[in-house]
C-alpha cells in the first residue's frame, strides 16, 4: 500500500509521493484551508477592523447561511457579535495597562523575595536571625502565591511562617 500523507489543514490523506504531495500543496483547496487555519489565530482588533470595513451579507441575513462561508467578501457578523468583539478588545487593553499583582510585577516580586531570602540566610548563619524575628514577627520566607497551591503533600507544603525543615525527610 505504501506510506500515506495526512494534511492537517485539509483533514485529508493520500498516497505519499512527490507528485501527489506537490499537487496537493499547490492546490486551491489546500491554500484556502491553510488560510482559514491561520485566520483563526488573529487577534480581536484585526477581526473587528476587517469586519467593520465589510458590508453585511444579504444571503446570510435572510437565511442564516452563505454558500461562500468564510471566503465571503461580505460580513457575517451581527451587531451583537461586533459589540462582543469591542468589549473583548477593551478588556484586553485594560488588562495590558494594569500591572499584575496589585501594582507589583511578578519579576520584581521574585527578585525582592530572593534578596530578602539571601539576607535572612546570612542573618541565620551569623546568629542574628533571632533578633530580626523578634523585631518583625510577620517576616515570612514564603511568597504569598506559594501558599495558595492546592493538594501539595505535607513535606512540600509551605506554612505561613516559612518552609518546613525537610532535613530528616526520607523520599521514596
Task: Give an overview of the whole structure.
- It is a single chain.
- Helix content is 51%, strand content 5%.
- With 172 residues, the protein is mostly helical.
- It has a two-stranded antiparallel sheet with strand order 1-2.
- The longest helix is centred in the last third of the chain and has 21 residues, at 106-126.
- It is elongated and about 80 Å long.
- It starts with a strand and ends in a 37-residue tail after the last helix.
Strand order of the largest sheet: 1-2
Question: What characterizes the major β-sheet?
Answer: 2 strands, antiparallel
Spans of at least 5 consecutive residues whose pLDDT stays below 50 are 134-139
Rg: 29 Å
* Total DSSP helices: 8
Chain-averaged pLDDT: 79
The secondary-structure element order is: EEHHHHHHHH
What does the oligomeric state look like here? single chain
Dominant shape: elongated
What is the terminal separation in angstroms?
Answer: 50 Å
**Class computed from helices, strands and strand pairing:** mainly alpha
Strand content: under 5%
Q: Report helical residue fraction.
A: 40-55%
Task: Tell me how many strands there are.
Answer: 2
GO biological process, one term: RNA splicing
GO cellular component, one term: U12-type spliceosomal complex
Domain C3H1-type: 51-79
Zinc finger (C3H1-type): 51-79
List keywords for this structure.
mainly alpha; Znf_C2H2_sf; Zinc finger matrin-type protein 5; nucleus; mRNA splicing; elongated; about 170 residues; zinc; 2 strands
Write the layout of secondary structure elements.
Blueprint: E1 4-7, E2 12-15, H1 18-25, H2 28-39, H3 44-53, H4 58-63, H5 79-97, H6 100-103, H7 106-126, H8 129-135
Antiparallel strand pairs: 1-2
Helix pairs in contact: 3-5
Amino acid at each position: 500500500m505504501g506510506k500515506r500523507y495526512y494534511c492537517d489543514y485539509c483533514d485529508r490523506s493520500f498516497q505519499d509521493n512527490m507528485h501527489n504531495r506537490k499537487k496537493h500543496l499547490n492546490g486551491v483547496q489546500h491554500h484556502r484551508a491553510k488560510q482559514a487555519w491561520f485566520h483563526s489565530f488573529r487577534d480581536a482588533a484585526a477581526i473587528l477592523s476587517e469586519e467593520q470595513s465589510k458590508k453585511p451579507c444579504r444571503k446570510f441575513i435572510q437565511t442564516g447561511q452563505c454558500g461562500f462561508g468564510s471566503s465571503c467578501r461580505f460580513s457575517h457578523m451581527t451587531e451583537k457579535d461586533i459589540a462582543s468583539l469591542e468589549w473583548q478588545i477593551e478588556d484586553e487593553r485594560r488588562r495590558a495597562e494594569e500591572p499584575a499583582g496589585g501594582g507589583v510585577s511578578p519579576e520584581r516580586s521574585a527578585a525582592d523575595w530572593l534578596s530578602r531570602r539571601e539576607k535572612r540566610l546570612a542573618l541565620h548563619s551569623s546568629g542574628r536571625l533571632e533578633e530580626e524575628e523578634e523585631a518583625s514577627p510577620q517576616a515570612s520566607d514564603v511568597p504569598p502565591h506559594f501558599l495558595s497551591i492546592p493538594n501539595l503533600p505535607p513535606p512540600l507544603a509551605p506554612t505561613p511562617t516559612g518552609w518546613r525543615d525537610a532535613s530528616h525527610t526520607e523520599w521514596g
